[in-house]
UniProtKB/TrEMBL annotation:
Signal peptide per UniProt: 1-26
InterPro entries hit by this protein: CD80_C2-set (IPR013162), Ig-like_dom (IPR007110), Ig-like_dom_sf (IPR036179), Ig-like_fold (IPR013783), Ig_sub (IPR003599), Ig_V-set (IPR013106)
Localization: Membrane
Gene Ontology BP terms: homophilic cell adhesion via plasma membrane adhesion molecules; regulation of Rac protein signal transduction; regulation of wound healing
Keyword Transmembrane attached: yes
Superkingdom of the source species: Eukaryota
Protein name: Cell adhesion molecule 4-like
Keyword presence, Cell division: no
A cellular component annotation (GO) from this entry: cell-cell contact zone
Ig-like domain boundaries: 126-216, 226-254
SUPFAM superfamilies: Immunoglobulin (SSF48726)
Entry membrane topology: Single-pass membrane protein
Molecular function, one GO term: vascular endothelial growth factor receptor 2 binding
Length: 254
């Protein structure tokens, strides 16, 4: 491959790549990959290089023409041509859906046809997880807690915490169409001192901002049988003293 001709410093790295690929003399079109949240607005940009007025066509992943040189061809009002200039063409998609995913084609009908594909990826962030206990929590008996995220794409990562300490859960997921259902099961054997303790299930996901998580707390309500303790009012007794005995009973429920 020949070294590229001296490129003007303002060129984008992607365009330099194309240039280096040996097409330096001709007009070019270049597209970028785009990620959008479900329901959000995506913007797909096709960069034009040395545009000479040739026809530019944008097609959806099913290869249906969305815009023919700037004129709407497919009747889907969610798509809008935000810009068509000599430098770029910007396609805006509102209320993005999972079935909008795929490759969008930017075609330039010049002497030789160029096309570039922008890959649109639609992410589904998780809602706060649902946490449920398999049974009533009883002192000394095994308890199963389930943390569920019914819908996310890609799968979320689920973790259990008590205070800041992570507890080992068993995670599983399955794909339902394009989205993932997932859960994490935590097994524990609560003691009476765990009554009132708060466990948290945390979902992290690439579509949530950096460091952001969805959290659901779960407070343990541990059932335990009553026990009684008797406290005398004094330990040394003389004849004629009055003795008060206090009986303290604890149990859940009372
Ligand atoms: C866009 O995504 C496709 C498919 O994942 C990949 O092959 C291509 O290299 C990506 N292009 C850019 C410019 O990142
Ligand atoms: C395509 O559209 C561009 C921008 O509006 C225009 O400059 C160009 O002349 C059009 N090309 C043809 C062949 O109609």
């Amino acid at each position: 491959m020949q070294p590229p001709p001296r490129a003007p410093p303002a060129l984008l790295p992607g365009l330099l790549l194309l240039w280096a690929a040996g097409h330096g003399r001709a007009q070019e079109v270049q597209a970028e990959n785009v990620t959008v949240l479900e329901g959000g607005t995506a913007e797909i940009t096709c960069h034009l290089h040395r545009y000479d007025g040739s026809i530019v066509v944008i097609q959806n992943p099913a290869r249906q023409t969305l815009f023919f040189n700037g004129t709407r061809a497919l009747k889907d009002e969610r798509f809008e041509l935000a810009e068509f200039s000599r430098r770029r063409l910007r396609l805006r998609l509102a209320r993005a859906r999972l079935d909008d995913e795929g490759g969008y084609f930017c075609q330039l009908y010049a002497d030789d046809t160029h096309h570039q594909i922008a890959t649109l990826t639609v992410l589904v962030p998780p809602e706060p997880p649902l946490v449920q206990a398999g049974a009533l929590a009883v002192e000394g008996e095994e308890l199963e807690l389930t943390c569920l995220v019914p819908r996310a794409r890609p799968p979320a990562t689920l973790r259990w915490y008590r205070d800041r300490r992570e507890l080992p859960g068993r995670s599983s997921h399955r794909q339902e169409g394009k989205v993932f259902w997932q859960r994490s099961v935590l097994r524990l054997r609560p003691e009476r001192r765990d009554h009132g303790a708060v466990l948290t299930c945390e979902a992290s996901h690439p579509a949530l901002g950096r460091g952001q998580r969805r959290l659901t707390p779960f407070q343990l309500d541990v059932q335990y049988p009553p026990s009684a303790r008797i406290h005398p009012s004094q330990s040394v007794l003389r004849q004629g003293d009055t003795l008060v005995l206090t009986c303290a009973v604890s149990g859940n429920p009372r």
